[in-house]
Amino acid sequence: MTEACTMDLGEDGCARLAGELTFESVPGLYAHAQSALPEAMNSIDLSGVTAVDSAGLALLLEWQASRKSSSAGLTFTNAPSSLLSLASLTEATELLNISGRNSANG
């Protein structure tokens, strides 16, 4: 069973995602973020993401594209290695402005 992906909006300008960022969870997260993700958010922490697929990557690209059109891009931090591999494979690493987890966090 897929674990829903949740978003916690911090007061520090950073949103935090937790759970599976997959085909099954992306539609609900996308709908929620359309109204909940304020322009003031400048960073999304992915340290709680446990799984990701191409739909998850597409969602992050959509969020980044929507922000770049307003000159306020996002930074994605603590990405799991599976997302970094997928982003590299699709040549989306630079588009996303993404960084991985440090070795202490896996």
Structural commentary:
This protein has 106 residues and is of the alpha/beta class. The chain has one domain: STAS domain (Transcription Regulator spoIIAA, 2-Layer Sandwich). The protein has 4 helices and 5 strands; from the N terminus they run ββαβαβααβ. A 5-stranded mixed β-sheet has the order 1-2-3-4-5. Helix 2 links the parallel strand 3 and strand 4. The longest helix is centred in the middle third of the chain and has 15 residues. The chain starts with 5 loop residues before the first strand and ends in a 6-residue tail after the last strand. The mean pLDDT is 85.
List keywords for this structure.
106 residues, alpha/beta, Transcription Regulator spoIIAA, 5-stranded mixed sheet
Quick summary of this structure?
With 106 residues, the protein is α/β, with parallel strands linked by helices.
Strand order of the largest sheet: 1-2-3-4-5
Tally of DSSP helical segments: 4
Q: Could you tell me how far the N terminus lies from the C terminus, measured between alpha carbons in angstroms? A: 23 Å
Mean pLDDT over the residues: 85
Stretches with pLDDT under 50, minimum 5 residues: none
What CATH architecture would you give? 2-Layer Sandwich
Secondary-structure element order, N to C: EEHEHEHHE
User: What's the CATH H-level superfamily name?
Assistant: STAS domain
- DSSP strand content: 25-35%
Do you know the CATH topology?
Answer: Transcription Regulator spoIIAA
User: Which class do the helix and strand fractions yield?
Assistant: alpha/beta
Main beta sheet: strand number and arrangement? 5 strands, mixed
Q: List the domain count as a whole number.
A: 1
According to DSSP, the number of beta strands is 5
Radius of gyration equals 13 Å
Tell me the overall shape.
globular
Reading off the top of the CATH hierarchy, the class is best stated as Alpha Beta
Q: Portion of residues in helices? A: 25-40%
